[in-house]
Amino acid sequence: MAIASEVSVPWYRTLDKRHWKALLATNLGWMFDGYETFALILTLGVALRAMLDPSQYQQIPAYAGTVLAITLLGWGVGGMLGGVLADYIGRKRTMMLSILVYSLLTGLSAFAWNWLSFAVLRFLVGIAIGSEWATGASMTAEVWPDRARGKGAGLMQCGLGIGFFIASFLWLFVSPLGPDAWRYMYLIGILPALLTLWIRRGISESSLWEASHQRRRSALERQRSGAALDAGEHALTRFTLVDLFAEPEVRRRTVFAFLMSLTTTLGWWGISTWVPPYVGSVAAKVGLPAQQWASYAGMAYNFGAILGYAGLGFLADRYGRKPVTAVFFLMALLLTPVLFLWVQDPALLLVVAAINAFFSLGQYTWMPVWLPELFPTRMRATGMAFVFNMPRFIAFLGPLVAGTLIVHFGGYGPAACIVALIYILGLAAVPFLPETVGKPLPEKV
User: Fold this and answer.
1) Which of 149, 173, 283, 441 is most deeply packed, by most CB within 10 A?
2) Residue 189 — φ and ψ, nearest 5°?
3) Which residues of the chain have pLDDT under 70?
């Protein structure tokens, strides 16, 4: 009767200020990540044109692919560091450190003097940004109740799309400010550092992490004293990255989740990042201003993404993690040629971009929804960070390959459709993960 009564209550009435504050903090952290990332995508061509010799302009797509790849590589390094830190020093402390560092480094990007210095700074920014996601996603999952966890994850993930949208909106007004306009976008990126002041005072640490941390400390003390440890205590004494591959079931989940994450990540960096310049190029062919239409495309694309981020979370709570994630992979595959090959009218292209983004970007939410439910608390952030970030060590090739293909084929369409075949890998991996909808977060697997 108690369970039936709980289900009859609307999900949002089961939440209190603690839940909403945690969501707000993680959403804002991810929103600023999104602003910083999409500011790079919008300004990269302009920045490279300012830093390269005119004789190198024809190779700008290749240089852009290199900078994106280096940024992605930094995400992978920082993501792993951040995940491990979050399991050892706490979700709250790691999130504050990440936001502070990437804000300051983003500001420094405004002072790059050539493309190489810019690339180095982007690598360092990537390290800081990568460490934020697993921390915030872990905190949201551990604070929100089982019944609404998917919704909380979807609403958290919306922060990325909101950040993308803000960057696109600001670029409309900043881009006409002259050849240094791109530098102003990075100076604005310093502002998120102020968020750490509120997080420090207004957000509580995850109680699940605190309990796990206390058990870890007790197990380590018993180990140092020479006491015999049971299996659970022994697991707590292992380094979290080692622990991730010590048990067969956890190892199996990690491998298949990694393949799905590789699909989503390569799809984003190899396809989605090219949508604004592609739409701008189509608009330019009919005499419309390319930069302005690139901003329109960014806003349309990220409006669809925001709906997709939230939509996947709500749908996954209703229909399950497996079927919803599979549908998002399939639709992303089918809609890529529609966007890049079949539609040539700029206005209609904005509509198609929004629909495509609902699935191709919205699919990112499967990770904050599903991953926390696959790993025990003692290694949750490490496991999520590994799955979310390790694919970047492979997917960083996506921008390089796509940039080369664009130059080779003389257009965006064929390159995007070739890279989109990666969605087949994600579809194949989905059935191998357990369905976890409505279940409590695991303490052991």
Assistant:
1) 149
2) -65, -5
3) 1-8, 56, 395-411
What pLDDT score was predicted for residue 367?
Answer: 95
- Residue entry with tokens 């592609």: 278
Q: What is the pLDDT of residues 347-363, one digit of tens each?
A: 898 999 999 999 999 99
User: pTM score > 0.90 for this model?
Assistant: no
Amino acid at 70: I
